[in-house]
């Protein structure tokens, strides 16, 4: 399976986890999108440096070829799914753990 397909599956899986399984509904919140805008800025900066300096290379057969700040667009999809899953679990566990004093 290509990196593109895995990244798309990751986004779909993360969205399903957020909306259907954990029901945290982060994707419907403005605060999530504001936080994600900050995160994606630094992701693009980091990916741009790593791929622009050829520290990280991608097999051209595994990606669609569209790049943002030197990094394949798949990295944005994969990063999005990681951020969404992390925050969804954080909110879900936060609702279930007893409050600390």
Apparent shape? elongated
CA gyration radius, whole angstroms? 16 Å
Domain module tally:
1
Total strands: the figure is 2
Class from secondary-structure proportions: mainly alpha
User: How much β-strand is present in the residues?
Assistant: under 5%
* Cα end-to-end separation: 48 Å
In terms of per-residue confidence, which ranges show pLDDT below 50 for 5 or more consecutive residues?
Answer: none
Strand order of the largest sheet: 1-2
Helix content: 55-70%
Give your account of this protein's structure:
The chain is mainly alpha-helical and 101 residues long. The protein has one domain (3-96). It is 65% helix and 4% strand. It contains 3 helices and 2 strands, in the order ααββα. It has helices spanning 3-21, 30-52, 73-96; strands at residues 67-68, 71-72. It has a two-stranded antiparallel sheet with strand order 1-2. A hairpin with a 2-residue loop joins β1 (67-68) and β2. The model has no long low-confidence stretch (mean pLDDT 93).
């Amino acid at each position: 399976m290509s990196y593109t397909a895995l990244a798309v599956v990751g986004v779909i899986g993360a969205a399903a986890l957020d909306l259907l399984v954990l029901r945290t509904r982060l994707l419907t919140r403005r605060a999530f999108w504001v936080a994600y805008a900050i995160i994606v800025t630094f992701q693009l900066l980091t990916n741009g440096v790593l791929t622009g300096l050829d520290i990280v290379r991608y097999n051209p057969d595994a990606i669609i070829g569209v790049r943002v700040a030197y990094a394949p667009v798949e990295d944005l999809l994969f990063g999005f799914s990681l951020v969404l899953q992390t925050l969804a679990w954080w909110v879900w566990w936060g609702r279930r753990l007893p409050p600390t004093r």
